[in-house]
Design brief:
Structural class: alpha+beta
Oligomer: single chain
Shape: globular
GO biological process, one term: GTP biosynthetic process
Organism: Heracleum sosnowskyi
Strand order of the largest sheet: 2-3-1-4
Function: Major role in the synthesis of nucleoside triphosphates other than ATP. The ATP gamma phosphate is transferred to the NDP beta phosphate via a ping-pong mechanism, using a phosphorylated active-site intermediate.
Distance between the termini: 55 Å
EC number: 2.7.4.6
Keywords: ATP-binding, Cytoplasm, Kinase, Magnesium, Metal-binding, Nucleotide metabolism, Nucleotide-binding, Transferase
Largest sheet: 4 strands, antiparallel
Number of strands: 6
Length: about 190
């Protein structure tokens, strides 16, 4: 490396760095900041989860670097090993679907990293950054998305993102609770 040259190396590969920079460029060109008439920008919060295949596949640093480079702030994070009951509670809206048992087995197969992200348009920007649910399709239609680069298929798609502001509030309060002065757990948001 010559004088004045800087090489960024993430997880031992400069290819990852190039991918991050490309994602950031594409993301910012595709989703410019939206301003209201009075130029006041309201930040949103969303829940992001790196699923077991993301942690086992050593994608955590890449995903978190991509999150930060895309203008998000990570407000809180926790690594958990979900048990069957917690997983069923979190994914309750899918309980009648045929894939539900496989989803529960998969999400409880290893630890997950759960994060609260914040920025203007956090929900839609995070969903755009992670790409389509089916990672194998994302590899074709959104090749620079997180799921395309880190996921495998519909089930093992590496990351989760809230699909609406309402869902984000429910999901954040599911995992991150405040404690009141009496020591009781209090939801960060009202149950929806």
């Amino acid at each position: 490396m010559g004088m004045g040259e800087t090489h960024i190396n993430i997880n031992g590969s400069s290819t990852n760095c190039l991918c991050i920079l490309l994602i950031i460029l594409i993301f910012h060109l595709s989703f410019p900041l939206r301003c209201s008439g009075d130029a006041t920008l309201t930040k949103e919060r969303t829940l992001a989860m790196i699923k077991p295949d993301g942690l086992v596949g050593n994608h955590t640093n890449f995903i978190q670097n991509t999150i930060l480079a895309s203008g998000f702030t990570i407000l809180n994070q926790i690594t958990l090993q979900l048990d069957q009951d917690t997983a069923k509670g979190f994914y309750a809206e899918h309980s009648s679907r045929t894939f539900f048992p496989n989803l529960i087995n998969y999400i409880t197969s290893g630890p997950v990293l759960i994060m609260v992200l914040e920025k203007v348009n956090a929900v839609s920007d995070w969903r755009s950054l992670i790409g389509p649910t089916d990672a194998s399709k994302a590899k074709v239609t959104h090749p620079h998305s997180i799921r395309a680069m880190c996921g495998v298929n519909l089930e093992r798609n590496c990351v989760h993102g809230s699909d609406s502001i309402k869902s984000a509030a429910r999901e954040i309060s599911f995992f991150f609770k405040k404690t009141n002065s009496a020591g009781e757990n209090v939801s960060e948001h009202d149950e929806l």
